[in-house]
Design a protein that fits this description.
The complex is a heterodimer. Chain A is mostly helical. Chain A has a domain at about 40-275. Chain A has helices at about 5-15, 15-40, 45-70, 80-95, 100-125, 130-150, 150-155, 185-190, 200-215, 220-230, 230-235, 240-265, 280-290, 300-320, 325-355, and strands at about 190-195, 195. In chain A, strands 1-2 form a two-stranded antiparallel ribbon. In chain A, helix 4 packs parallel to helix 6 (about 130-150), helix 9 (about 200-215) packs across helix 10 and helix 10 (about 220-230) packs across helix 12. The termini of chain B are far apart. In chain B, about 30% of the residues lie in helices and about 25% in strands. Chain B has a six-stranded mixed beta sheet with strand order 6-9-10-3-11-12, with helices on both faces. A six-stranded mixed beta sheet of chain B has the order 18-21-22-15-23-24, sandwiched between helices. Chain B is α/β, with parallel strands linked by helices. In chain B, helix 5 crosses helix 6. Classes of the chains: A mainly alpha, B alpha/beta. The complex binds adenosine-5'-triphosphate (ATP) and magnesium ion. The site of adenosine-5'-triphosphate (ATP) has 22 residues of chain B, from strand 2, helix 2 and helix 15.
Chain lengths: ~350, ~525
Amino acid sequence: MSKGESSNMFRTFFSNPTVGRILGVFLLVLVLYGLMVGIEENARSLENHQNIARRIGEWGILTLGAAFVIITGGIDLSIGSVVCLSAVSFGILLENGANPVVAALIVLAGAGLIGLFHGFLITRLNLQPFVVTLCGLFIYRGLAQFLSLIDFKRLLDPALRGTGRILRDSSRDVGVGGRGDLGWFFWLQKGDFLGVPMPMWIFGILALIAAIFLHASVYGRYLFALGHNEQAARYAGVHTNRYKVLAYFLCSLLAGLGGILFLMKINSASPSNAGNWFELYAITGAVLGGTSLRGGEGTIIGILLGTAVLPLLKTLVIFAGIPSDMEFSAIGLALLLGTLADELLRRHSEKARKGA
Amino acid sequence: MTVATSAMEPPVQTPLLEVERISKRYGGAQALSGVGLRLYAGEVVALIGENGAGKSTLMKILGGIVIPDEGEIRIVGQPVRLSSPSQAMDLGISLIHQELNLADNLSVEANLFLGRELTWGGPLGLARGKAMEAKSRELLARVGLNVSPLERLSNLTPGQKQLVEIARSLSMDARVLIMDEPTSSLAQKETDRLLEVIRELRQQGVCVVYISHRLREVEAVADRVVGLRDGKNAGEMTRAQINYAAMVQMMVGREVDLHQRNAADSGASDRGPVLRVEKLRHALSRGEGVSLEVRPGEIVGMAGLVGAGRTEFAETLFGIRPRVSGQVYLEGQLGKIQRPADAIALGMALVPEDRRQHGLILAESIGGNIALPNLDTHQVARLLRFSKIRHTAHQGVTSLRIRTTGIAKPAGQLSGGNQQKVVLYKWLHRQPKLLILDEPTRGVDVGAKKEIYDLMHDLTRKGVGILMISSDLEEILHLSDRVVVMHEHQKTGELTRAQLSEESIMRLATGSQS
Ligand SMILES: Nc1ncnc2c1ncn2[C@@H]1O[C@H](COP(=O)(O)OP(=O)(O)OP(=O)(O)O)[C@@H](O)[C@H]1O
Ligand SMILES: [Mg+2]
């Protein structure tokens, strides 16, 4: 390759707005990390690092899904509720003696169906993603609460039938039914390999697959193209609806996986609290990582970095001794400053490019 | 096979593509009624007709984008149903749309291959980046576009994007290649190149359907001309019958002489300039910046190749782009222009090049679009005067003969040329002192072009100064009192009416300083 050509590639690389974004969030992560280990001796422990990595993994899985949807120009607000519904259903299945592998497959299939349903409403009936998934946010949490009301033991066991009411008076936390055959599943959440927590491994592997899918396969191109200019993609012969549905499907499927891991984390899930805010964490991670809410922009490497921001911030808030009542405000403020710095940086690099 | 000769005589083989009694209705508007069309291998068929005649609709039907209400389509004698773009492509029909349909967020290469990428790994669909990049270079060279395949599309000008669209369609190996106004944003040099490519394709047995309002191009390249008027067939011409006047007659049903120009048409006066620009520079400028003057009643043409920086200059002048240095004087007064509102307040108006992105709010009605820059005169105490807005809109529709079912119709549903007229009128209504026109007749039919020219002359007689950017050399030659030529963001020269000629402009436009 000639020198001129490589410098040209260099310029093309930096003129890509997403590259600026990545540099910005990279700096943000560095600063947060530096502050954290600077403030507090304890933050330097291996355990703290593992905790943060575990959380990055858990949320990152959801962020990947959110990013797919956002890249197509859509949004999924139902992620947290799908996490909740999946966790609760998984627990109920386990409590009632289902084989854990079968139970997990059922939960994943259900979550996938939810995604297909969203995709159907959005592409065929032309409803807006925001509205569809906002309704989902309410419906699935309500459904989880309802499921936890049902006394399945009574419903399913002929011997117990008729001995009492099938519906409980109030929803309850769902557990794992004291099962002893969940070793593998617990390992997926609590275990580690080479010192790295398993959720981080899962996230890393999924991110690698997603990177190939988004950046090296034609399907990724289709998602980017249709996110920016759906008509152009359709006119080019791309089956745009198919790929849109795929994005919602993957998003809900990953939320289903998130739900399974959620239950494994503390061996129980509360239908009213499980997965609360998770959709916003996922969307925040994606957006901080340079995924544009206007659609058509985003990179996996950015998402990896973006996902790290919230867990780091949360830990930082704790170590900095900020009262927990102030946690959300502190996070919000830090995010605002982060995006602001990112925007300024991007403008600066754009100016530098135009001036050249 | 003797393709070359079959282009000359009426061929007798089965048509490659045959359309019969096609009708299409959009709400209250009958876009097509009972249209027929036959296309043969190895010929170039020009489809002509006024704005809104139904040309694009007919082609969208062939491209599988619009489904006709009635009629039959046959390919080599076999009836087919074209119900999606990918289906039409599979049958060998490829369509370059009148409006750009590219993904700005992707690279040039990704756009060239969108929907038909070279892949490996079977169902994994992994992109063969290097192979596509190499093929892209070939395709870009073929249309004469000198950009890197890795360049992000948003960094290209509309003209360059148009060339990407053309290169894209060339890569499809289509049997029928439809080009809906491919040259409307191209300059002479790129156009000539395209016509050359079209002739090559004909040699290879491809049927090219060519839609253009630039009838000189049609004369130069078409083997056959098919006319449409009000959604119906309006006759056909063979190679021998094709001439400018006959085509105009076929389209509009009367004679139009675009080139008639009265001495009185030039309102140029010796009064002080209405606009004086001194060394205006923006971020992309090279050299010392652009200086020019426009006197009241004068039309100053601005010529140059695609990407010469004419649009950027106009945008900087109008406060859209940040000015790096230089001064702008209006009627001798230093103008502080930092945003479009400042320019408008000083009596300037800009009709932008990209009507869909910058000229119109597509979902808004015609009336609403026309009212938008005129709201100051269409309100009482900040409340809209609906009757006046309607009145103004009707005035626009009548005076520019905008073909529509009513002023409430969303602008996005008008045919391309009629959209252009709406953009023009919304600024004309302000009666600016200085009017900047960026490709004012892009996609406009002869009849309407004549009306726009007449309008411009009317304005100059009233003392309005006009700065007209145009890639249509004929238009530049015909209308300008003076021509400023640009090349790579620099002014390479200025020609008086006496010095004007195709050659003198081209020489400056390609960068050879005079
Ligand atoms: N999506 C649509 N909805 C409603 N009406 C439409 C739509 N598309 C086209 N039309 C109408 O159909 C008629 C034919 O439009 P068409 O775009 O085919 O014209 P055209 O011959 O290509 O004109 P031009 O030279 O201006 O491009 C016009 O009256 C137009 O308003
Ligand atoms: Mg058209």
